[in-house]
Amino acid sequence: MKIYIVVLLLAIFCYTDTTSTATAAHSPQPIVADTTAYYKPVKGQRRYVTGSYQGDIHLNGTGITYSGKRARIGYLAADLTYHPVGTKFRVFIDGKSFGIWTVEDKGGAIKNRHRFDFFVGESDAGRIAAESWGRGSDKTIVMYKI
């Protein structure tokens, strides 16, 4: 059930290229990604992951990316050693295209070329999507640098 919530939210907010498949011509080295998701907490939302607004700000940030942009769906956090700000990826979840995502952020736990954190929204809807995402181990996420 949780994966369906995440996929539904991503389908609503992301450009989906239904003509592409995971086997289409892309960069020669696909990345099978180890992923998590993060969101922007908002004061007054119904619930917080950590139990408080300040705790969730500490965990997820303020909604401003490392590049200085306002976080939005379609932005990724990555290890900037391997994927600098502005790097674009075509993302496939369980073989279905979820469009192009761009590295705009970094995170303390993002420490190799296969590790990414997807921004999935704000307030309670973003929290629900991030919690539903989990560690991403119940889905296969393949990314192609473009």
TrEMBL record:
It holds the Pfam family 3D. SUPFAM superfamilies: Barwin-like endoglucanases. Residues 76-135 form the 3D domain. Keywords: Signal. The keyword Lipid metabolism does not apply. The keyword Zinc-finger does not apply. GO terms for cellular component: outer membrane. Residues 1-24 form the signal peptide. GO terms for molecular function: hydrolase activity, hydrolyzing O-glycosyl compounds. InterPro entries: 3D_dom, RlpA-like_sf. GO terms for biological process: peptidoglycan turnover. This is 3D domain-containing protein. It comes from Candidatus Wolfebacteria bacterium GW2011_GWE2_44_13.
